[in-house]
Amino acid sequence: MGVNHFNRDPRDTQFLLHEHLGVAKLLAYEPFADFSVEHIDQVMAQAHQVANQCLGPAMQDGDREGCQFQAGEVKVPSAFHDCWRALRQGGWLAMANDRRWGGLGLPAVVSGLANEYFFGANMALNMYPLLTSGNARLIEAFGTEADRELFVPRMYSGQWAGTMCLTEPLAGSDVGWLETSATPDPDSPDKRVYKIKGRKRFISAGNHDLTENIIHLLLARIEGAPHGTKGISLFIVPKIWVEPDGALGRPNDVVCTGIEHKMGIHGSATCALHFGGSDQCRGILLGEPHTGMAKMFQMMNEARVGTGLMGLALSASAYDAARTWAKRRVQGPPFTDRRGQRVKIINHEDVRRMLLNMKAGTEAMRALIAKTYYLMDVARFEPDAAARQKAAGLVELYTPLVKAYCTDFGFSLTREALQVFGGAGYCNGFPAEQYVRDCKILSIWEGTNYIQSLDLVGRKLGLEGGAVFQGALADIQTFCADNAGDADFGKCFSLLSRAVGVVGFMAGGFLNYLGDGRIGFIPLNATAFLECLAEVVMASLSLEQALVARRKLATVDPASADGLFYRGKMHGARFFCQRVLPAVFARQIAFEQEDASALEIPEACF
Amino acid sequence: MGVNHFNRDPRDTQFLLHEHLGVAKLLAYEPFADFSVEHIDQVMAQAHQVANQCLGPAMQDGDREGCQFQAGEVKVPSAFHDCWRALRQGGWLAMANDRRWGGLGLPAVVSGLANEYFFGANMALNMYPLLTSGNARLIEAFGTEADRELFVPRMYSGQWAGTMCLTEPLAGSDVGWLETSATPDPDSPDKRVYKIKGRKRFISAGNHDLTENIIHLLLARIEGAPHGTKGISLFIVPKIWVEPDGALGRPNDVVCTGIEHKMGIHGSATCALHFGGSDQCRGILLGEPHTGMAKMFQMMNEARVGTGLMGLALSASAYDAARTWAKRRVQGPPFTDRRGQRVKIINHEDVRRMLLNMKAGTEAMRALIAKTYYLMDVARFEPDAAARQKAAGLVELYTPLVKAYCTDFGFSLTREALQVFGGAGYCNGFPAEQYVRDCKILSIWEGTNYIQSLDLVGRKLGLEGGAVFQGALADIQTFCADNAGDADFGKCFSLLSRAVGVVGFMAGGFLNYLGDGRIGFIPLNATAFLECLAEVVMASLSLEQALVARRKLATVDPASADGLFYRGKMHGARFFCQRVLPAVFARQIAFEQEDASALEIPEACF
């Protein structure tokens, strides 16, 4: 059993559920009627325990041992088998899924926050359940009743695992160009059965020894289908064929040809898969032909929020490691007492600056992500149609922010945590360097962060004729106006109000560029725009939390655990607004220059 | 033989030597009288070849094989032995060192730029020669004539290697607290011989099988010496004792007790060393007692510039990898032609933005670093005393910028290069992820980047009563005034002039904080201040280069290789000024908030 490095203080999660967002409001919705607030707390406490006792201790061993590829099969790190069993036993694979198929039926915000624990304890391990339930969720949504009965309960329970097979060697970000083909299987009485041929790459959990079967969901083009994304269909392709009664049949000609040697997440098998090399691979069409991309996108949007969640989870764990170290490691005196004694480095001003950056940053990300999950619950179950629609719009708007900002900012925070450790952080005795390595993939998969910024600018700004975006900005401006001149946070609200103006200014600039034909400025500035909007939303949520915390602080002993927590919230919000948010103004100045050098420079200059 | 990934276009180095800084001016100095411009070009071409043919092909193998620790001895990656031989044969260990002791006697700027090739080709390998010559340089400076004759030629030639032994388990950034002791050796007739006892940690090249002997330079406290840095002395501690005639004697009780398992530079042995475990370790006092820190600092300043150079070297190699990939990898259409055909991703707007960021950023760092080395040559050999003094002041001022900014910014550029690769960059088939891993140590060693910012604020701003700093700002303001309204770069000069004002404003703020007792704001803002000054100096150097390039462009075919290079320079300067430099203005706003939350927050809130 390895050392557990997971050390998350659950207090911020409790604050989100009970003081900031309010899970009790969700429990009033009919599908959650069976749950009480106490149930939710129990679930979260159990998740914390599983993360501490099972997943966390397997993290470093999983990294060191890695996945082994032998004779076409993949062995996961040995400690992962116990983790998988623990996740199965608790029903953790399908927390927010339908109880009819074996899910626990919890609100998405609860599942999301519990998953922050799991990913924070062991990201590589948690890829296996994530892909399994994401896959089954699609079968639940689009499969026939027989498909559902055959696959979904076995996957929600973790008897079988799942994957998403999109990427091909020549089609990465560019999924529409995939070459995997599907042709009707002449030998099958079922018209939904096709012969599959093709190669997939970078398939997470594509092969492993955790389960007796792996159900691939695969994108392929039915012969004769249109080019591009409009001709892509989705297929259920089991590793081992499944008979109608659920019994395992013969191997389905899905061959793992190798695994990648990666910078991080060594315990997560990233596989190259060859389908139909012996012409024996069969897949079951999921839903109508040529609708695969749209279906996959439903899953991908959740996966994007999940990816942002991983950025949060890793950077929060990196922060936990750094704060623990800083309270222990003794070095020279602080700047403000240079002739003094050696102190714990948490007394060094720059270390405090880095720690508060990590604390404020991770808590702001957690607020954004929890809010997004919370809004998913509202969008599904809120009785009032207008409130449902508003929530759905915000989920759409926030999704690219969560995915891109929380993975880039999260990465920079893992880097900062390593810095707090000094040389010890560069060595693998502590997990600081592993968090950095594990985190780096997140800006790439599930649509690169640039793709997210195009999604934001190209799709999300225009939702409902721009009403979603404008409404979000207006709500934040109102919040600023309501609190202008606040005794504790006046400067913060003033900065936030200015920053909202910058976001509106840049969005207006994009419209102008569309109008005057200088559209090249849109992609050049899309990343900066996404970062501005994310920081504005996160600053706003941080200030919401700070106001709640101030109110609560008046009712408790300031030196109590709760009192300290509320004071920390207030300091964190101030720090975020005054030291992180101002980046918006630099991007504004850069935007105003209308610098086109990156477009004008000849290719040969590179 | 591994694949060579080193692929540096030498054109920018040639531009620096011949068009921007002008190495010919240095060659007029008496010590360089034997060199012609053609010599220098030959040296640079040979260095490029060694990097391509020897060091580069050993980079990935060195990472994968790593160092092996067996029975107290360290084996370096097998391919490193040939690299070491090649470096020895070319005299590359001591390019800028005195010819009397076997150095090549070249200008520091030539040595620095050649070392950029070596580090860019194989950072882990090049740690061994760097430490060897840095060590020997100290013996050359402070040893007796006998010490010099015994050690220096054998180290400049690479027959023996060297290390710097500073860090101890409980004394990292905090060198003054080291516990290694030295007591006069009663058995030695030479009063400079001491018995050494202690443990050192994180010693790069502390043990290896490249050479028959390793000469440690070790900091220790002579019994009874004062506490803190003022009681530290420097000792020559050979791994194997050296007789007066240079013959190897008996092992000197220096035991390697282990090596670190690190995030990167796997081929560089990072050792824990135990001196005098059997009471048999002897060291030779170098110079006077209790003067070790000052001596070490002379070497450390060069090592700090060298560390910044590594940040440049790795990020420039990462850029080379990314631009090569971007010209090859085909994916979907660009944003400005979304219904078009698939293209090489170098046609994607965001990829161009990232590539130009890397190009402009690495070239600006190269300009800063080359200028620093160039000024070292001026400071040593310029006949005019005032010019010498001015150069020496600027070297002091620039050193923390080079060390801290080029390692943090360099790291962020390696990250960006990985992003250009997408998923392939996360896998070790390409070296993108290795550059990220190798680079991360640079913000930590040779004084953390925070220590650099304190050095800047605490020591360098006050040099010559502030004249060095004020003079540097005034020169840039004059440069801006002379070019205000420039047809091509008017906006850039305007931004730069504003940014100079911000730097002056922040420096004034520090003085006020010293005066009014709010000194905690100094360390809280020191890092941001360093970044501002570095960006101002780099923007200024980029614009100097752009003006040279524009002048030259008028004399060549714009489509020629030179024409394209000059156009690239102009685009790069514009990009840097308009898209990187504006970060200064965000830091100004953050500074103005006078946010003290990181100081005020109770420790228990973390």
From TrEMBL, chains A, B:
Q: Which cofactor does it need?
A: FAD
Q: Which GO terms describe its molecular function?
A: flavin adenine dinucleotide binding; oxidoreductase activity, acting on the CH-CH group of donors
Acyl-CoA oxidase/dehydrogenase middle domain mapped to chain residues: 164-275
User: Which residues are in the Acyl-CoA dehydrogenase/oxidase C-terminal domain?
Assistant: 291-454
Per the UniProt entry, the signal peptide is none
Is Oxidoreductase given among the entry's keywords? yes
**Which superkingdom, per the lineage?**
Bacteria
Q: Keywords on this record? A: FAD, Flavoprotein, Oxidoreductase
One Gene Ontology cellular component term attached to this UniProt record is: plasma membrane
Q: Where's the Acyl-CoA dehydrogenase/oxidase N-terminal domain?
A: 42-159
Q: Which residues form the Acetyl-CoA dehydrogenase-like C-terminal domain?
A: 473-602
Q: Which family does it belong to?
A: Belongs to the acyl-CoA dehydrogenase family.
Self-association state and partner proteins as the record states: Homotetramer.
PANTHER family for this protein: ACYL-COA DEHYDROGENASE, BROAD-SPECIFICITY LINEAR ACYL-COA DEHYDROGENASE FADE5
Instruction: Identify this protein by name.
Output: Acyl-CoA dehydrogenase domain protein
Q: Species lineage, top-down?
A: Bacteria, Pseudomonadati, Thermodesulfobacteriota, Desulfarculia, Desulfarculales
